[in-house]
Design a protein that fits this description.
Elements: E1 2-5, H1 11-24, E2 28-31, H2 44-57, E3 60-62, E4 70-74, E5 89-94, H3 101-108, E6 119-125, H4 135-148, E7 152-159, E8 168-175, E9 182-184, E10 190-200, H5 208-221, E11 232-240, E12 247-255, E13 258-265, H6 272-287, H7 295-308, E14 310-314, H8 319-330, E15 335-339, E16 344-348
Catalytic activity: a 3'-end 3'-phospho-ribonucleotide-RNA + ATP = a 3'-end 2',3'-cyclophospho-ribonucleotide-RNA + AMP + diphosphate
Subcellular location: Cytoplasm
GO cellular component, one term: cytoplasm
Length: about 350
Amino acid sequence: MRELDGADAGGQFVRTALSLSGLENEPIRIENVRGDRSTPGLRPQHLAVLETMEAICDAEVSGAAVGSETIEFDPGTDAGVEKATVPGGSYAVDIGTAGSVTLLFDAVLPLASALEEPLSLTVTGGTDVAWSPPIEYATQVKYPILRRFGLEVCCEVDRRGFYPDGGGRATLHLAPSDLEPIDLETRGPVDGVRAYSTESASLADSDVAHRQAGGALERLSMRDDDTGGIDVRTRRLTTASSDCPGSAIVLRLEHAGGLAGFGSLGERGKPAERVGEDAADAANRFLESDAAVDRHLGDQLLVFLALAGGAVRLPAVTNHVETSLGLLERFGYEFDRERTSGSVLVRRA
């Protein structure tokens, strides 16, 4: 059993470790779960991830309780089998809180490389909540990039869920996939931007979705550089049913080398225009680098980089990236890092 220490990490460490355990057919024990957080141990959303992976991998698990700071996960594949296979099937999970739907999906995505049959996973929880990517970041940025490199993935969003009530519902569909080496070394010129702005039905009278998009696109158009302006290709405004008020915006920058995404969530007392401006400010900071992906996508692609090979140019090596690389190296994957003034190229050795 591989011993792992999460004292300096959060939930992503747990999700990636479970994915790798299932794929490598290697039992793991994680101590100091989410030790880097103010409330360590499993929260309901992390427990939902553990129980989902238990069901999909037919694993034996200990420590499956809210607050648990030590867990064990044994994928249960016959001894001597070097690489596991995953049977597929249909699963449904209710996180029970506004815990992130997209982050639960993140733990399952790598399993596509070991699927024998298609898999569908319906999750009820938060689709657009703090500390996780909004659902449209996943569907419009992350999943299109992963499909480009062989991952057979799509997602249906039935209902939006904002904090604190959650209640959103989305279904992830995966098919057996042959991953290809990731080639995201260069960005090239930006071709255009797509804005996806969502308001709950209770905010429609205040025109929140329109105002968010307007704030974002106006801020982007004010860039003082030689881009000549960024072509607005899509402005999608959505009024969604939801158990509680909320809003979100995602900007998708399209460039010669791929995609980058930037999201922001509405907050009580925060003008809708400012919500959009926050997303645009993140996009403008990205454009000041020569990275090929945004910092969130760069971090989330590392497990696929380990599995398939290739290289990704990140804006920077953040604490999240360092933690993820350290975990992957514990499983035997090696990486080279090449720093420049405006980015870091991470390549699987």
